[in-house]
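Newbie here. four chains, one complex. Structure please?
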Amino acid sequence: MIRVLVWNEGRHEQRDESVAKLYPDGIHGAISAGIAENLGADVHLRTALLDDPEHGLTEETLAGTDVLTWWGHAAHEEVSDEVVRRVQRHVLSGMGLLVLHSGHFSKIFRTLMGTTCSLRWRNADDRELVWTVDPSHPIAAGIPNPIVIDRQEMYGEFFDIPAPDELVFISSFTGGEVFRGGCTFRRGNGKIFYFSPGDQEYPVYHHPDVRRVIANGVRWAAPVTRVEPSLQRTEPV
Amino acid sequence: MIRVLVWNEGRHEQRDESVAKLYPDGIHGAISAGIAENLGADVHLRTALLDDPEHGLTEETLAGTDVLTWWGHAAHEEVSDEVVRRVQRHVLSGMGLLVLHSGHFSKIFRTLMGTTCSLRWRNADDRELVWTVDPSHPIAAGIPNPIVIDRQEMYGEFFDIPAPDELVFISSFTGGEVFRGGCTFRRGNGKIFYFSPGDQEYPVYHHPDVRRVIANGVRWAAPVTRVEPSLQRTEPV
Amino acid sequence: MIRVLVWNEGRHEQRDESVAKLYPDGIHGAISAGIAENLGADVHLRTALLDDPEHGLTEETLAGTDVLTWWGHAAHEEVSDEVVRRVQRHVLSGMGLLVLHSGHFSKIFRTLMGTTCSLRWRNADDRELVWTVDPSHPIAAGIPNPIVIDRQEMYGEFFDIPAPDELVFISSFTGGEVFRGGCTFRRGNGKIFYFSPGDQEYPVYHHPDVRRVIANGVRWAAPVTRVEPSLQRTEPV
Amino acid sequence: MIRVLVWNEGRHEQRDESVAKLYPDGIHGAISAGIAENLGADVHLRTALLDDPEHGLTEETLAGTDVLTWWGHAAHEEVSDEVVRRVQRHVLSGMGLLVLHSGHFSKIFRTLMGTTCSLRWRNADDRELVWTVDPSHPIAAGIPNPIVIDRQEMYGEFFDIPAPDELVFISSFTGGEVFRGGCTFRRGNGKIFYFSPGDQEYPVYHHPDVRRVIANGVRWAAPVTRVEPSLQRTEPV
């Protein structure tokens, strides 16, 4: 049983009628439904929102979470630094983390990467093709090559991240750009998967292949150990 | 002074009038000219052809070579296994190797990779865009992002290579494909750079940015050490 | 259910009384027992020996194998090139491979790596300590840090392999040497795990932590897909 | 000409007579001397100290620096957050960074890594052996295998860093520990080299091989480009 917490900023759904229409249960609702659809009884799902007390990310909640998924866009700066440090500590002690789409610019992702995480972008109905370049990776299990997403925001290189530990997917866009859109990173005892498809303006989280990738990512990121790394004086062996 | 040997299969220039027209000095001539144009007095350049005795790759020649560049397409199987083993031995002892375009399917590249090195392809006048994803890499120095190649053969994923040690360039094509077209690998003491742009049917080796990448690659691949790895019984330190 | 084939050269057990005593069921017997002990009903186990027809590695047997483990030492050259090519093809199409100890010098490992796979060694009762450097890796699950192996053959750097995709364990020895003794590699659709502890002269395959690492490796290497990579002409998307 | 800035916390030399005796010109003096000894006219050397105004790391000074080396231990917390952000920005825009020994716990290194950077340690006169595991790397040029350091502080795994882009050196210690003591990382346009040998209590920065590694690191880390990554809206190509 993997205990999953689906976190969403939750602002676009309130402000933008188009988003509320695309995602009547919120972006977190669509992401949760996609995970449930693929992993069923193997997961226990909860959701949390920016506007919840402590953003829904209390010490107790995180201690009971195996994998956290993160979606944010318009309000990255409203996430408190203390909560970011807390989430980072839990990742380093083994909690899995999926960072989705515009979450590339979240405080937690930039803190874990150490880089600006900037990129090129354009919102102009590009078609995105998501190509698998690591077919033996469990995150690519059962995924067609390529995934075709008819309309998407363009994210392009140079994407200012550390070289990923594993590069699973590369996307192309109508405009000719490429993007390392499916990347894994290990930090401390924690596994991180960044996956770029998904935007509030497009129905990407209803796409069955996108949902399956996210579910595969949840399964992959589930922890092996939960121990916080620490400085230790030790005796010879 | 880097001693460079530019190797070419040299068959298309003889058989196909269109190729002879594009490359009147041979593909090796164009590659050599591009290296000379960028590195000038820093290199000593020689060329060798499949039809030379021992394919121009004698023990003595390789011992006097710092970096070998390899272009082949129609006659990979005519390269003798003994010469392939000899080139491999020199790479493992420190000689640099640049594998260009259809050289992906050469015996020497497949031997050093351990995989099929197969890919998707299409010869249909695609435009290729070569995006830099590792801007701090010396092979990317002075290269625009992207390089625009107006007409090219398409090479697409899945490209069956080991995960590169460094991924420097990713290409996109008009048809929507992506390709890890600029990759480095270290094997033994030797450095290997695979660079996909370049085809006998298109004037790619006259493109100034493509020439500069190849010259940067030559400089990067020049050896630090020339020692053949060997099994050794050793005493405690 | 993971279908595992435990391959053993099987010569030392016949020739050397000391080895027959340490491993009365053969080295393959000890390795099988260790996998069964840890994975129980999750695996179906078979064994094969060098002296079996086609070394016990027929097309049919390999087609029915999810993960192959390989132990050899004295007779690497007796393994037929045709069988090596067959095993390589199955690995590239997705079969997992565990290469154990002196298997570093087997034809199949050198073919998949492209390097000499040479190293320093000494057979002098060193103590080996196996340190985990990637605690979130599933192969390290439940493993103490370090594993203490009281008596072992020393394997030391420089180990002439490509940079591993993941470095899970590093060993030290009484003589001061270090060794990248737990490494993963992906080749084609297949996952490869090299694990150095284990020698015919020492009871290493009876060590419970060593057995657990091998069992973890089997689970990790089980295939996601079984498709042979191939050259394909394709249409635009 | 590489413009190098050697930064030192500079507190131990003031407080501890033993350190002042070992390093009469300061730890920065010994590091500078080692770089000058190896790179001579190829470098322009300056030094800066924690107690200098703005820690000697003003915008102007950093803009005129190609490679910064960092040594700190007792006063990491006294480095101002604003200066740390400034140094990070310069690294991401291309300035090289060498982080030495106890600098593993500096704010700047932890910020760039995203992890705790914790480790095991012991100050008990261990002998350290530094083994080269990437002999083709320019940082390993001319370095004996192993480097023998007679007396050193022990640093051991698990070292909580991201998997290095390149692992160049692994150390062993008398107590049996191992340590990934020579690692490279690319962040943005900048190259980072962490090198663990060196302690205020031992004369490690007078060791000719240690000095040569640091000088090789300076040459390797010198920038190719100096452009700050940024979010950009772009048109189709």
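Moderator note: Residues 156 and 176 of chain D are 9 Å apart (CA to CA). Chain D touches chain B through 23 residues (CB under 8 Å). Thread marked as resolved.
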